[in-house]
Specification:
Elements (H helix, E strand, L loop, with lengths): L1 E2 L4 E2 L10 H9 L8 E5 L5 H9 L4 E6 L2 H12 L7 E5 L2 H7 L4 E6 L13 H7 L6 H11 E12 L3 H11 L2 E9 L6 E9 L6 E6 L1 E3 L2 E2 L1 H7 L7
């Protein structure tokens, strides 16, 4: 079990465990437009949905998860949280949902599979969670375009090296980058991740940079301020 300040997460049945990526995205994404409907694509443990349930009063917080074990664990984590009456998870792929859904969402968020074939392991569940086979970037961008409300925000986290590629795909379908935060582990390391928000409105991109640590286990004030509402030791 992973304990946060206001909720806890069981993760023994999930291929992808709690990590910095998901927590960063759930803490960073803007809620300034007060979204009333939220969709989490590829929920895994449910961490993003739980963070957003803690941060806002959205009436609808829905999630989809393709892996059966992860789906069942996500449902359990939702039910055991203080916001169980607002959180719902569906056992389906994004493509299956796209064929049946009619709703639009004010916020669509995803920590998607983003690795390529060359790094695959023999663990099929882990491959599904980590690799783009089941949810190619183009499908993700099209899905967000189809189901995002007019003033909505689509947010995700990707490796820095995939940033330009995904922006190009998003532009093709009609989504424009609004905010980008590039994340690196320490002051001398390379940028490893890009947190990104997209909207239907073209505007000047707000660009930020976040450094996680000053040295090993000594965190920057910016990082601590971002995640302090979640981690017990922050």
């Amino acid at each position: 079990m992973f304990e946060f300040k206001q909720f806890s997460i069981q993760q023994d049945r999930c291929a992808m465990k709690i990590g910095t990526d998901g927590v960063l995205l759930g803490a960073w994404v803007s809620l300034e437009k007060n979204p009333q409907s939220i969709l989490d694509i590829g929920a895994g443990t449910g961490i993003l949905s739980l963070q957003l349930a803690q941060r806002c009063q959205a009436e609808t917080l829905e999630a989809i998860e393709i892996d059966e074990d992860a789906f069942e664990q996500c449902v359990g984590n939702f039910e055991n949280s203080p916001w169980g009456d607002r959180l719902f998870c569906f056992h389906a792929s994004a493509q299956e949902c796209a064929a049946e859904m009619e709703e639009e969402y004010d916020l669509i968020i995803s920590n998607p599979p983003f690795y390529s074939d060359e790094y695959k392991s023999n663990n099929n569940k882990r491959n599904t969670a980590r690799f783009t086979d089941t949810l190619p970037f183009r499908d993700l961008a099209i899905f967000a375009y189809q189901f995002l409300s007019e003033k909505g925000i689509f947010a995700l986290i990707l490796p820095r090296k995939e940033e330009e590629n995904f922006i190009a795909l998003a532009l093709e379908v009609g989504l424009f980058p609004k905010r980008i935060c590039r994340v690196k582990g320490n002051p001398t390391s390379e940028v490893k991740r890009s947190l990104m928000e997209f909207t239907f409105e073209k505007s000047e991109i707000i660009q930020e940079e976040l450094t996680v640590e000053i040295s090993r286990h000594v965190y920057t004030e910016a990082y601590k301020n971002l995640v302090k509402d979640f981690y017990l030791k922050m």
